[in-house]
Fold this protein.
Amino acid sequence: MPELPEVETVARGLDKRVAGDVIESVWLGEKPEPLKSSATEIAAALERARIAKVRRVGKHIVFDLERVPRNGRGKPQAHGQWIVHLGMTGRMQVTQSKDELLKHTHAVLKLKSGRELRFVDPRRFGRLEVVRFDEKSKTGFAAPGDEPLDSEADRFVELFRKRKTPIKSALLNQKLLSGVGNIYADEALFRAGIRPRRSAASLTLVQLRKLHGALIEVLKEAIALGGSSVSDYVDADGKEGFFQLQHRVYGREGEPCQVCQIPIKRVIIAGRSSHYCPHCQR
DNA sequence: ACTATTTCCTGGATGC
DNA sequence: TGCATCCAGGAAATAG
């Protein structure tokens, strides 16, 4: 499941491989498509655009697009952005055009280098959209919440301290922080020693600060290992991540806690599996 | 203004 | 072996 560390890994891989390349043509799959923008809008924004940069914003992959003047001279102009959300099973591939098309391929971009950039998503939870710049506005895509890795402790505390909802739900709320999903919410709560059902408002300042530190720590460690491969996540090179081996609670229901040996519990909060140690987390 | 619940979607796992 | 059912979950939509 692509959360912040997985999307960061994919975006870095894509930037390394396709930045500087030019999109020559776009194919989009049959309806119903996982599109937020219309197919026409997407094709119009992408065709003949140069990929200046690929980066992550929240759980979104942002392709910064430029247009090169028709005569080939003059500076490329910032033109718009292509936003890809991988959902649960979404995947970006950089392939040769002769490579076999995977089932559930919803978008194929032909690149000037002869390669293709493909979006594959069996479960169709992913989303594609474009943001086009004009003379007046070059406001790019912005995630609804704060970037977890850039968040300051004081700001983090302020975001959460008045919420009555369980801290687990608050961590998953993209309007507060953008990028945290089920795995890293559970892992951060374990590291901070906080039970997922505790209401955010009931936590002390010390606990909230500890959670802030734990979240940044676990996200950074996960990025360093290329993210977590559970179900079918792979990066832009088709390689799996390794952070799933470091999970201390997620997906470990019934296994002994690595700290106290008490079995890890699993409960449902806000419709999501939540894993925790009943002894270490209070 | 918040918070909680439902819905979307398909492959893989499980049960009888 | 085969068929039905359940489950995973991000975020938008809906309801309270």
About this structure: Chain A has a mean pLDDT of 91. Residues 1-3, 59, 85-88, 123, 125-127, 172, 174, 181-182, 230-231, 271-273 of chain A lie near DNA strand C (CB under 10 Å from a C1'). The CA atoms of residues 228 and 243 of chain A lie 5 Å apart. Chain A is about 25% helix and 25% strand.
